[in-house]
Amino acid sequence: LCDKKKNTEEETFQCAYYIPGVLATLGSKSWPNLIGTYKSLISNKTTKIKETLASSLHELFKILPSSEHGFLFECFHQFLSEKGILLIRSTTKATSKSDCNISIYVK
């Protein structure tokens, strides 16, 4: 979907922007087909792409089953470690295994 070698920066941004909507439309059963694309986007060095992904991470937590939350928390921690790009404040609150609320603020 988002081949770094073939897509322009704008096409890659569009992919990052729309991936939560695509996942919401197709359902969590489509995640195995999209996770490779998401991992490719996560490895992108462009600030705009990283901020877009971080801003929509909470939507993925809503859509994906709790069995995938470990991967999403890894992404969350990766965003936290990005120096000078993201996260003025972050809050994580889980009241049950299936309830997760994450607020991410980007610069």
What does this structure look like?
The protein is of the alpha+beta class and 107 residues long. It contains 4 helices and 2 strands; from the N terminus they run H-H-H-H-E-E. Helix content is 56%, strand content 12%. Helix 1 (9-26) runs parallel beside helix 3. The protein is globular and about 30 Å long. The protein starts with 8 loop residues before the first helix and ends with a strand. Mean pLDDT is 79; it is low at 86-98.
User: Helix segment count?
Assistant: 4
* Average pLDDT reading: 79
**What is the CA–CA distance across the termini?**
28 Å
Q: How large a portion of the residues is in β-strands, by DSSP E?
A: 5-15%
Q: Please provide the count of β strands.
A: 2
Helix content: 55-70%
Question: What kind of sheet is the major sheet?
Answer: 2 strands, antiparallel
The Cα radius of gyration reads 13 Å
